[in-house]
Amino acid sequence: MRLNGRRESSNVEDRRSGGRGGLKLGGGMGIGAMIVIGLITYFMTGDLGTAFQAASSSGDLTGMVTAESGQNEPYQPSAEEQKLEHFAKQVLASTEDVWTAEFKKMGKTYEAPKLVLFNGSVQSGCGGASSSAGPFYCSADQCVYIDLSFFLNMKKSLGADGDFAYAYVIAHEVGHHVQYLLGILSNAHAQMSRLSQSEANKVSVRLELQADCFAGVWAHHEQKMYGSLEDGDLEEALNTASKIGDDYLQKKAQGYTVPESFNHGTSQQRSKWLKRGFNTGDINQANTFDYRYEEL
């Protein structure tokens, strides 16, 4: 992905702190040992209270992270983290450009989310979260939260790698913000609150697939505006989408799947809706709520 010379978004808050002694989870478990469980809960819905239900079934992933050293020391990012930070800010700027133009077409004004960088754990408007839970969007404060080390864990644990794969991660979370601005997120969460868990999971799948499609819409217009995509970039994102499907992650974590617990979509579904958004560039094609569940 060619981003040389592109602007960085200034809509970023850096909450990273502490020395480089690392983190540990309750009971002395290293954070690396929890990455598969964290990946299962990776793509969050806007309401962390709902989103962490999947994580809680495998153990409490919040409130268990403690710093081993230096929480009050200035944070010293590695060279790799500095590179990822620069990249994330450029991608966020691109989403601002694309969604500002797309909202203008709809006669609306786009209000960009803030990107919050953190390490270890963070308090958001939706509650506390640890790095192992992955990037997430919180509608209560309209922020996207990312621990940049998660990108490195994607590569190490799932083989999901590449700059455009990382851009897809950010664009997906921004997609949840688009849902919030359009009133989709609040309507879906109100609906979920009245349903059984298995039926609420189906609504969550619709939200996640739509956010995937919105990420594809962003990529379509990013390419149209700037011609930044290179050979293999789309394949990187599609590979990531397939590696974060509920079926793939459940098989990786426990050896079998429980379809009624799916709340993000299968590998095939996630790839399909991402590609649909990329191919059409049309936000109206991200109509996951207009299909029967079996047709998604």
What does this structure look like?
- This protein is α/β, with parallel strands linked by helices and 296 residues long.
- The protein has one domain (12-295).
- 49% of the residues lie in helices and 10% in strands.
- The protein has helices at 35-40, 48-56, 79-105, 149-158, 163-181, 184-192, 197-226, 233-243, 246-254, 267-280; strands at 12-14, 23-25, 29-30, 65-67, 114-117, 121-124, 127-130, 136-138, 143-146.
- The strands form 3 sheets. A 4-stranded mixed beta sheet has the order 1-5-9-8, with helices on one face. It has a 3-stranded antiparallel beta sheet with strand order 3-2-4, with no helix packed on it.
- Helix 5 (163-181) crosses helix 7 and helix 5 packs across helix 8.
- The chain starts with 11 loop residues before the first strand and ends in a 16-residue tail after the last helix.
The total of beta strands comes to 9
The whole-angstrom Rg is: 18 Å
Shape annotation: globular
Question: What is the count of helical runs?
Answer: 10
Taken in chain order, the helices and strands follow as EEEHHEHEEEEEHHHHHHH
Which runs of at least 5 residues are low in confidence (pLDDT < 50)? 19-71
What tags apply to this protein structure?
296 residues; alpha/beta; four-stranded mixed beta sheet; three-stranded antiparallel beta sheet; 10 helices; 9 strands; globular
